[in-house]
Design goal:
With 253 residues, the protein is mainly α. The protein has 5 helices and no strands.
């Protein structure tokens, strides 16, 4: 009876080991995805961050990078814990999984909260930023961000091209009689912004606010989807780790 019970325990331990190895492989892949999304947000999309009123979007990306980096280290720790079958290693591995889970939970909450107030923030802030700070001394980052925004999304002005008539830049001598910035033009040439006819400039319904809002919303959904996927893997990992921990704890030798 005891021999059969022992064989059954050994079979369960082997299964748990293989499950944890498979989990670690998937966990590493998930960590790479989380790290990649975080880096992509800051590197490829950083130009638009200066146009946002709050730093919540950037903070979410930094948290993802932190979580992704921890996943890589934790995956290695998990393999060591499974191979050595020591309760202390499994406990440390479990706590690391729990810590990463909580970090991702914070990132998810921040992303959700920001998603809820995204539209209102852009409506109140983007037009003010574009009209008051564009092409002003010390605001070079915002100027480049606005130019990139209008060219990338083929839009002109926060709501429409008429918003530029209230711009500090357009009212100044440095505008050289431009009606809109040259970045509004479908084909950019020197002083092309003097002519604001729809055949010359972008005329998108809803303006740049609609385009940027949709872009950020889609990006937040990507962040959320990746975070949820990795979180589900972590829950499975914590369950497998607990089972293996209990098996080692009750091992008679």
């Amino acid at each position: 009876m005891s021999a059969g019970y022992k064989d059954d325990q050994d079979w369960q331990a082997v299964c748990l080991k293989y499950l944890l190895f498979v989990f670690n492989f998937l966990f590493w892949m998930g960590g790479a995805a989380v790290l990649g999304v975080g880096v992509w947000t800051l590197v490829e999309k950083s130009d638009y961050l200066s146009l946002l009123a709050s730093s919540t979007f950037a903070v979410s990306a930094y948290i993802l990078i932190l979580a992704g980096s921890l996943v890589v280290v934790t995956g290695f720790l998990g393999c060591c814990a499974v191979i050595r079958e020591q309760r202390s290693c499994l406990s440390a591995y479990f706590l690391c999984l729990l810590l990463i889970f909580l970090i991702e939970l914070v990132a998810g909450v921040l992303a959700y909260v920001y998603y809820q107030r995204l539209s209102e923030e852009l409506k109140h802030h983007l037009n003010q930023t574009m009209t008051e700070n564009y092409a002003q001394p010390g605001k070079e980052a915002i100027t480049l961000a606005v130019d990139k925004l209008q060219q990338d999304f083929k839009c002109c002005g926060s709501n429409n091209s008429h918003d530029w008539s209230m711009s500090v830049y357009i009212s100044s001598k440095s505008a050289e009689s431009r009606m809109v910035p040259d970045s509004c033009c479908k084909t950019i040439t020197p002083l092309c912004g003097k002519r604001d006819h729809p055949s010359n400039i972008y005329n998108v319904e809803g303006g740049c606010i609609t385009k940027l809002e949709q872009f950020l919303a889609d990006h937040l959904l990507i962040i959320g989807a990746v975070g949820i996927g990795v979180a589900c893997l972590q829950i499975c990992g914590m369950v497998f780790t607990s089972c293996l921990y209990r098996r080692i704890k009750t091992d008679p030798y």
